[in-house]
User: What shape does this take?
Amino acid sequence: MEKLVSRWCKNKPLPESYIFPPETRPGNLVVPTCNTIPVIDLNKAEGQNRTHIVQQILKAGQEYGFFQVVNHGVPESLMNESMDVFKEFFEMPWEDKAMLYSEDPKNSCRLSTSSVNYAREKIHHWRDNLRHPCHPLQDCIKHWPQKPIRYREVVATYTIEAKKLGLRILELVSEGLGLESRYFGDKLSESEMLSINHYPPCPDPSLTLGIAKHCDPNLLTLLHQGDVSGLQVFNNGEWIGVEPLHNAFVVNIGNQLQIISNNKLKSVEHRVVTNSRVARTSAAFFIVPSEDSIIEPEKSLVDDAPFYRAFEFKDFLLHY
Ligand code: OGA
Ligand code: NI
Assistant: This one.
């Protein structure tokens, strides 16, 4: 618990153990927050523009691995309320969070800090994290935070809506790939994980990272990044910032979707930089295959040889 950044960071200089080597630290480089990452209006997918929207999603998935969606159907009030409750969680007194703190990555709902394995990592990351599975809801919810009082109710509604949206986007992706629209709708999207990141203001954002560069190992991610920037995506040899758009979701292709699409869609490296002014809270909703899913390139998307061999998803997790 003492290790949580938010616990000790106030008025302290950046500890040595948080300083990234020069090649991976952000430095003083000003990264343009740009609007090159496509913003897609999902409202239009229901009308005669559907094919156009499908093409936009596919193109964004190929070029950037990322896009944002607006008019996505998750009520604005629910997005705001969830973000409020996530922030409130991290603002609560320590006593109210202590029972959720764990250094065991296998714990099903846990508050932790830095990357997945604090004990084994060389450099620590400037973030605290709360994560828990969300499916099946009746089983998982018992392990979720009991405070703030409305956490379970608000977040349950939020995850149900986020899942619906994820499935809708996966239908559009399937159509774009020429697959039946329910292709991803069963085992390949069965599990869900919510990962809430809290990045306190940092004394020297040029030297450290909130999350180091990585790809998401799941099928699809829906990120609620609130109103504070920090997410950067690697594109054409440079980092670009993803502009926070109020009430939008940032969507990115996970490793499993890249594999199944036989590289027609890309799972792209991204990272999170910190800032010295304000705390940033973000919530990543991961759509994940069931452990017994067989992951392999879909045959109809293979021209010559597939880029990947088939494997069981649980074996992927074992090696990840
Ligand atoms: C993640 C992630 C981005 C962010 O949790 O995998 O990339 O902006 N988060 O917090
Ligand atoms: Ni990520």
User: Anything to note?
Assistant: The mean pLDDT is 95. The CA atoms of residues 61 and 265 lie 5 Å apart. The chain has seven helices and 15 strands. The pocket of nickel (II) ion (ligand 2) is lined by residues 214, 216, 270 (CB under 6 Å).
